[in-house]
Design a protein that fits this description.
Order of helices and strands: HEEEEEEEEE
Strand content: 35-45%
Length: 106
């Protein structure tokens, strides 16, 4: 599949303790999308796809938030000012570069 073909298909993501899995065929097959985790087995808690651009994905593992602008092919770590577990991510409806996080304090 070319990037253009993949971008036109509906995408579904699930989180696991090792990263993300993505499907474009309603779950018939899944592609593993690794996150650049600091530890091997960190529970992935938060996941959000931007309403305005479904290539923009935010995911969290522990207190770290990851951002992808290419549908999960590459990831950048986002700075957060928290030591709690980021367990919810909300993305601005029209500005995908703005994300809000909720935390669980231990």
């Amino acid at each position: 599949n070319t990037k253009a073909e993949v971008a036109k298909k509906p995408m579904m993501l699930i989180t696991t303790n090792t990263g993300l899995y993505r499907t474009f065929n309603a779950g018939s097959s899944w592609d593993f999308i690794p996150l650049p985790l600091k530890q091997q087995a960190v529970e992935t808690l938060g996941l959000a796809i931007a309403p305005a651009n479904d290539n923009v994905i935010y995911a969290s593992a522990g207190s770290t938030v990851y951002h992808s602008s290419d549908g999960g092919a590459t990831w950048q770590t986002q700075d957060t000012a928290t030591t709690g577990l980021v367990n919810i991510i909300l993305i601005h409806p029209t500005l995908p570069q703005i994300a809000y996080t909720g935390i669980f304090l231990q």
